[in-house]
Amino acid sequence: MAKKLTITQRRWLISAHILFSIIWIGTSLCLLILALTALGTSDPSMLHIIYLLAEVLDKTLIWGSSIGALATGFLLSILTHWGLLRFYWIIVKEVLSIFSFALGYAGLHTWLTHLGTMTAVQSSDTIQAAYPLTLHIYIAGCTLELAALVIMVIISVFRPWGQFKSPKKPMRMAIPVS
C-alpha cells in the first residue's frame, strides 16, 4: 500500500491540480474563441496569424496543463482515500480526462496544424478547398473538449453517484462426486 499524503502535501497537490485544470480550461476557451474569430474572417493574413497564435497556445499551455492535470489527478487518486476505481464520479472524471487528452492529441492538434498549413499559403483559392470543413470540425472538437472539462469541474464539486461496489463473489456449490 502506498504511503498516504500529509494534509499539507495533499493541499499542495490539490492546488497544483486546480491550477493545471484552470489553465487547461482557460486555454481551451481561448482556442475556441480564436477558431470562432477565424470563422468570421476571410483575410488570409489574419487567418494565418490566428493559427500561429493558436499553435503557440496548443504547444505550450494545452500540453503542459493537460499533462499536469492528468498527473496530479492520478497522484491524488492513488495517494488519498479516493482511489482510482472506488467512486463512480472519479471513474467518470478519469474517462473524460483521457477522452479530452486523446481528443486534443489525436484530433485538435492535427486539425489545428492543417488549418495553419492551409492558411500559410496566403492564397484564397487554397484556403477555400478543404478549409471550411476542417475549421468546423475543429470548432466542434474544441466545443466538445471544453464541455468535457466543464463537466469534470461540476462532477468534482457535486461528487454525484456513490461508491463503486464490486460484485460479490458467487458462492461455490459443492458438487457431489460419485
Defining key terms:
178 residues, mainly alpha, 4 helices
SSE diagram, text form:
Blueprint: H1 7-39, H2 44-79, H3 88-120, H4 124-158
Helix pairs in contact: 1-2, 1-4, 2-3, 3-4
Question: What does this protein structure show overall?
Answer:
By secondary structure, this protein is mostly helical. It has one domain (8-158). The protein has four helices and no strands. It has helices spanning 7-39, 44-79, 88-120, 124-158. The radius of gyration is 22 Å and the shape is elongated. The model has no long low-confidence stretch (mean pLDDT 90).
Describe this structure in a few short sentences.
This protein has 178 residues and is mainly α.
Helix content: over 70%
Number of helices: 4
The structural class is mainly alpha
Low-confidence stretches: none
Largest beta-sheet characterization: none
Distance from N terminus to C terminus (CA atoms, Å) equals: 45 Å
Number of strands: 0
List the secondary-structure elements in sequence, H or E. Answer: HHHH
Task: Tell me the fraction of residues in β-strands, as a range.
Answer: under 5%
Question: If you average the pLDDT, what whole number results?
Answer: 90
The overall number of domains is 1
Assign an overall shape. elongated
Radius of gyration: 22 Å
